[in-house]
Fold each of these.
Amino acid sequence: MTRTELTRRQALGFAGAALTAPVLATPAMAQADPHVVVIGGGFGGTAAARAMRRIMPEVAVTLVTDAPTFATCPFSNLVIGGLRDMSEIRFSYDALHNDGVNVRVDPAVALDPAGRIVTLHSGDRLSYDRAIVSPGIDFRYDALPGVGPEVADRLPHAWKAGAQTILLRDQIRSMPQGGTVIIAPPDNPFRCPPGPYERASLIASYLSRHNPAAKIIIVDGKDKFSKQGLFMEGWQALYPGMIDFVPFSDHGGLKGIDADARRVETYFGDFKGDVINLIPPQQAATIVLDAGLGGSGLWCEIDGLTFEAREAEHVHVIGDAAIVGDMPKSGFSAATQGKACAHAVAALLEGREPQRGILMNTCYSLVGPEYGISVAGVYRSAQDTNRLDSLPGSGGTSAAGNLPELRRDEADYARGWYANLTQELFGA
Amino acid sequence: MTCPDPDRAHHGIFAIFAAILSGAGTAWAADGPLSVTVDACTTCHGPRGVSHGTMPTIAGMDSEAFAEALLAFRDGSRESTVMGRLVGPLSDEDIAEIAAYFASLPGAGQ
């Protein structure tokens, strides 16, 4: 079914139908069982693949991913801060195999929406009825002055978890006493808006135990950041004087980066560090933009009801690579979208109208091991535009103020949140 | 089914509930919900509503107690860390559907 085949009656008639309509509609496909190809083995892709098998078991699902295991960006800051081991944030795809998902560790290199073909690194070509594309981000080193991707070997981004996470952790561990860590986050939009500030927090947690005279300077590409008041309150309470936030308007932007001297040059002065965590500006993964799904921009615009790309039919884009209305670029958002997208794809394959359900995002950050804060949002696609709008009377951040019991509870919930999220994606 | 507090503004939910429990809209399959909204719950509370951490397990809860809790989070009469920020937009029908679904599942260790 194409978007143009949806009738006005179908579009308007669905409200409340989840409670009244026959749910197990007769599959409309007369030919062979449909094939859904999922690109990306992260939060969005695994959630979509598993949900697809659960909702519509007759669908053949192939998940294409780059590596045999996946390390999560959520909780990678705990590894950097010495609170978890890398093995605790790395997961295999065994459970997906057991669900009947065909997992291919063979990176997707091209997507042809017109021919409905995904080409893999090996040269294999997969045809699909529907593709769910969740490849995440790529870095825009060309938007940084005088450096290329190779600089990550010395100035790690650690914004894709794995070897980069370990590199940054080890650089911090071997930093001289009284040294300086510079964190340089990009302007919006980028993956995980609170991530750099949780990172500063958990690096401070490590340093306060092992290198108490050390400093952290955040040379930011913007003036404001996610959960800013709560983070700054926590920094004052736990690490007074250790973290210095320098907003964009106080430095005027990056003018140069000297990787040898570990120096960040800005228009209003230079910052010398011992460790530099350089987080570059970002864009949708190249495969998305090469397929023309970004239009003239750097991210993929989608329909918020079906997640189908505005620029191509039968291709659904979720997670960080997409602009998903008001939803933030977070792993949890991607997992939520993966499930909702699987519902929509199943409906389209069966010739039903997709449900206009509610999506939620919750995002916990640890300011310290026993100090958690959160932000939440609730979203539904608008009846007229299908944009995934934040719903009034919902969402927002944890209460501000000196609330030690709440901070402890939210730290506990942060760990539970991660356990359940990863269990849903990778657990038996 | 009885309504424990008929003076509460939300007492109508139990009529909706009765309709759902009678099978008017059994919107799920044996191995998971077929509702986008119900599916939103498990990302935090665990697959099939069984928690593997500090979040409460919501599978196997009594459906009336479940609905009462969500209604209390929604009207602010029950304190929470995060639930009060999430349930505001849920309709009575959403709450009844979520409560009925998780009540139908086995709880932890069952």
Amino acid sequence: MNVIMKPESRLLYEGADWDFDTLMRVHDACEELAGAELGLDWYPNRIEVISAEQMLDAYASTGLPLFYRHWSFGKHFAQQEALYRKGYRGLAYEIVINSDPCVSYVMEENTATMQALVIAHAAFGHNHFFKNNRLFREWTDAKGILDYLEFAKGYVQSCEEQHGELAVERVLDSAHALMNYGVHRHRRRAPDLQSEQKRERERREHDERMFNVLWSTLPEKASQPTTSTEEERRRALLQLPQENILYFLEKSAPRLAPWQREILRIVRNVAQYFHPQRQTKMMNEGCATYVHHRILNRLHQQGRISDGAMLEVLHSHSSVVMQPDFDDQRYSGMNPYALGFAMMEDIERICRAPTEEDKQWFPDFAGCGDPMPVLRHGWAEFRDESFVLQFLSPALMRKLRLFHLVDDSGQPVLRVDAMHDERGYRRVRRALARQYDPAWQDPDIQVVDVDLGGDRKLVLEHRVASGRLLEEQEARQVLRHLASLWSYDVLLREVDPASGASLREHAVSPPR
Amino acid sequence: MQILDRRLNPSGKSLPNRQRFLRRAKSLVQEAVRDASAKRDIRSADEGGEVSIPLHGIREPSFHLGSGGIRDHVLPGNKEYREGDEIPRPPGGGGGGGSEGATDGGGEDAFRFVLSREEFLSLFLDDLELPDMAKRRLVEGADPAWHRAGYSVSGSPANLSLPRTMRNSLSRRIALKRPKPEEVQALEAEIAALEGKPEHAERVLALRAELERQLLRTRRIPYIDPIDVRYRRFEPVPRPVAQAVMFCLMDVSGSMTEDMKDLAKRFYTLLYIFLQRRYKHVEIVFIRHTHEASEVDEETFFHSRETGGTLVSTALEEMRKVVADRYPPNEWNIYAAQASDGDNAAGDSQKTARLLVDTILPACQYYAYIEVGREGEHGIPGFPRGPTDLWRTYEALVNAGAPLAMKKVRHRREIFPVFRELFAKRGVTEGASA
């Protein structure tokens, strides 16, 4: 930032109106800065201009441009539409899809300045993050996703034609209920959605011909009680214990038709595709917000956007990164934009002008001068949880005045466990990191056993953390869905991982 | 880098999802629609609008942690707390942070959304149906449509199927070995070439004989034979009549107040909406009557005042004329709704009944009689009001088995129930009941 351009009239646009040439000019200007000054690396961009109604459409199917049909998307659409029509809620200015090329939807109602903001934010910020973050690289297939969605949509439709809408809907309902348990969390192989269709068919045919322990009807010698090693072997055959419930059902549910397995697989693949987004929401938004902030400030410095436009940028930027206090009416959890952006700026500060404290806490990059390599490294190698653990500085904790509150239902009062002081920094930081860790936030439920000797009852286990049991009614509803896919009884045991004691059990039979 | 304009893409991409959602929540939505329509007035009855349905019926469940146990919250904006401070639990029990409160969905017990006019109507009229009688007629009074049905050996020249005829001709010619023109030409050419050359005289003779035989064969086997000829065949398929006319008959004599006319109008509106959903084309004829009847436009029908006596038969006579004139019953589905306060001149009842039974009812798909009265009119203690003249007349007809629906309406809120009763899917109400 050492060269300040002369303020000649090189504005990219004037006023609020824009056309496709404007978008092109803005994109090129952003591209120049993103490459030369920020050193970003992005997928080729595709910017699509859509209307407000189309934006609502996109909302309804979880932001994906094309998706199979299901009533729940209609429900979400109706809900969003009602809120929007009554003016309770505005629409997002953009939606960006992790694909190659990277598709950003921008709304036609946006002003020229908003379009510039959106392009810098989505087409460069998010885009860079999608392409470089380890989770996205390893767990999603940006090249294949659009084709895969096309296949999924067509496949579900052909199933509807063949087996009826209702039959397909039942399977999808059940699969959606278990969608959060349709992801592999520990796997190294990158997905390849492009050959998914072909491979799946081959594997299914193979599976159908193969031996399935569940169907073993050979009479056992009654005199010999089944040995533990034999049981171990059968569990191993069924790949138990299994945290990916949808995967387990797809492979082992005894009475599903091939098309039903395929639908489970589609839901599972989509869940897997979204899994990294959940784990990196804060960083992803922080990265994009930081990028648009840098780029637009620079454009203004260079005299390529006017003062008026810059005010509009600042207005919308500051409302995006607003973090209400915990006792504020508007408070609804940590704002990922606010925390993300604050952390990125804080890292920049530590690189450029560290204090003694910073040097102590971040010896490896404090005062290194250029924040971009540090940020790019952070964006590439971390997820929200580890990013907070690694980079949240005492200075920022003081600035946000973070404190850790423990709510133990066994106690009559809440207790402040740690705050932003010397004794509390690390504890606050650890607690905050856990808030971003799905493994801590989601109930840990796994398939542990199938009663092979008896009635093929499926046994699941919820390892209860911090004494927090499942919400009972909803859990039963989900189990009913699970039972209808498994076709036999299902038992969910909530156990205390320390003692192994069973705290509560839910048993559900499949609908007849 | 690519910029695409998607604004012109077909909209309504989520329509199938929406239809699925409505099907899924149909019973809930239908209930909500009934509730909503009871509250609004009829003129806006056919508009869409917001309905709200209970959320429990359309919930998408997933595993969630319930309340209880130990929860951790990291919150921003600490003001006075120190480590180890104890804070009284805020009422509501959710703890200090609202971050997890939203997920259980407990905050929302109703789900609101907007229905379009079409959706609203189809849900509202879903369990209504045209009377069975009307449906039967729908087929009987059909005007046939012609559909292609293969080929035939006879028909009009206009229907001659050239491809099929030529195909038959060709296969017959091949089968019977009719000489091709090229072969004949080749023979002639050879003869022409060899003629006048004595050394080939014998050959020429043979060729001439051959040519003669070929030509004879060509004459014997025609290029196109009558047995080749095929005609496109058409079959008549009955086509249901897709147009309807609705007759609105109303007494506009002095005894009919504006309120009564308003009631009648509401009924007509409903009937019109209902017919419109079932027929491509619906026409309305307004006939008002005092002691004489005339066909008028809608404005006059509802708003201009007339004085005079009451002769119902004149309206029926006018309707008969209009039907004979413009709406032949075999081409039109005829619906009639008559509204009156029940007055009729004493000597007219006989004529009315005869007209109705002999000419009007046989032509109509449906005839409804709505007797409108003032609010609170019935049941005034001490003044028991017996059935009106017209009611008695029609009741006698119904008892004799005439297909006639009759109802009494006193208040706006009765219009929907009465209408629904008249067109309920099962057990068509043809008898009279008040």
